[in-house]
């Protein structure tokens, strides 16, 4: 397995792909529309795709749907692109899914943040080690909270096929300490998208993930280009353009106290606005409220009408 190819891809823009569902009670996956959505990203220059992540509503998919979505991703993008498919659940579940992904031709797996009521730090470390040992695929960690400590990340960074981490916590100091403690070829990715890309880049982030890239792929690609060229003035201008929509995504929505519930429905509505196929979300999420849809329309128009060329 060529780990270097996947490492290099992680240093760019990672498109966390959203899944279009039918607008009825069944909410079946619209696979052909999904492929068309991916083609629009690739036409814009996207080269790294993460299906079956949180933006892809992993926990609302069945096992077979996860396999089929990952298969559709591999089929839709060019052989030069890289696909890192999301996995989560018990060790046995992840091993089985990884085996099936491997047979499809994915280029790596990303292990979602631990979703378990009771955790032990030693057990978390062993969980990742057991999964990595069971596959030849490159493995990417995903940190969304304190359950995965810097100490555990540093230890796991020494495992041959654990090649990087998606760091999705708004903690610059913690991220900086991880960058300083891991091997040079371990790729540290900013996992909280465009709003924080300039700050994380200064602390050593070699790439970042994007959700709004599903409907404005040129924006994160140009942001990454500005950062790669140390043009932080341009990077901040692009970041500021994305910020209102990203702020909307981070909100809880109407009649809800749980943070970031708007995240995925805002991405999907943006896709609808762009003439792609976004569609509804599956429970336990809900679609954007009417007022939030109006805000999304305003922010989307501001991006498209900007004097910063993104097309």
TrEMBL record:
The keyword Ligase does not apply. Signal peptide: none annotated. It is an enzyme of class 4 (lyase). InterPro entries: Aldolase_TIM, DapA-like. Keywords: Lyase. Pyruvate binds at residue 55. CDD domains: DHDPS-like. GO terms for molecular function: 2-dehydro-3-deoxy-phosphogluconate aldolase activity; 4-hydroxy-tetrahydrodipicolinate synthase activity; 5-dehydro-4-deoxyglucarate dehydratase activity; N-acetylneuraminate lyase activity. Its EC number is 4.1.3.3, 4.2.1.41, 4.3.3.7. The keyword Metal-binding does not apply. It comes from the Archaea. The active site is at 142 (proton donor/acceptor), 166 (schiff-base intermediate with substrate). SMART domains: DHDPS. This is Dihydrodipicolinate synthase family protein. It comes from Halalkalicoccus tibetensis.
């Amino acid at each position: 397995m060529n780990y270097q190819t996947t490492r290099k891809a992680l240093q760019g823009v990672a498109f966390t792909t959203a899944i279009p569902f039918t607008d009825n009670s069944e909410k079946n996956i619209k696979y052909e529309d999904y492929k068309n959505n991916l083609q629009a990203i690739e036409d814009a220059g996207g080269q790294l795709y993460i299906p079956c992540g949180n933006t892809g509503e992993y926990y609302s998919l069945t096992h077979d749907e996860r396999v089929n979505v990952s298969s559709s991703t591999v089929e839709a993008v060019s052989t030069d692109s890289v696909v890192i498919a999301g996995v989560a659940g018990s060790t046995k579940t992840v091993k089985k899914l990884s085996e099936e992904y491997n047979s499809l031709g994915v280029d790596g797996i990303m292990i979602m943040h631990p979703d378990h009521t009771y955790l032990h730090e030693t057990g978390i470390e062993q969980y990742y080690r057991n999964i990595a040992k069971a596959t030849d695929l490159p493995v990417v960690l995903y940190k969304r909270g304190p359950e995965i400590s810097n100490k555990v990340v540093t230890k796991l960074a020494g495992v041959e096929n654990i090649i990087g981490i998606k760091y999705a916590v708004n903690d610059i100091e913690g991220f900086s300490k991880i960058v300083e403690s891991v091997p040079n070829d371990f790729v540290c990715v900013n996992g909280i998208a465009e709003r924080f890309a300039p700050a994380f880049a200064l602390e050593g982030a070699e790439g970042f993930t994007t959700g709004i890239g599903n409907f404005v792929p040129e924006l994160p690609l140009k942001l990454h280009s500005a950062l790669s060229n140390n043009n932080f003035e341009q990077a901040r201008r692009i970041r500021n353009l994305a910020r209102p929509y990203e702020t909307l995504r981070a909100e809880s929505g109407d009649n809800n106290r749980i943070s970031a519930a708007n995240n995925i429905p805002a991405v999907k509505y943006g896709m609808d606005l762009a003439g792609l196929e976004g569609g509804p979300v599956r429970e336990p999420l809900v679609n954007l409220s009417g007022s939030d849809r109006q805000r999304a329309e305003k922010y989307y128009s501001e991006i498209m009408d900007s004097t910063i060329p993104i097309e």
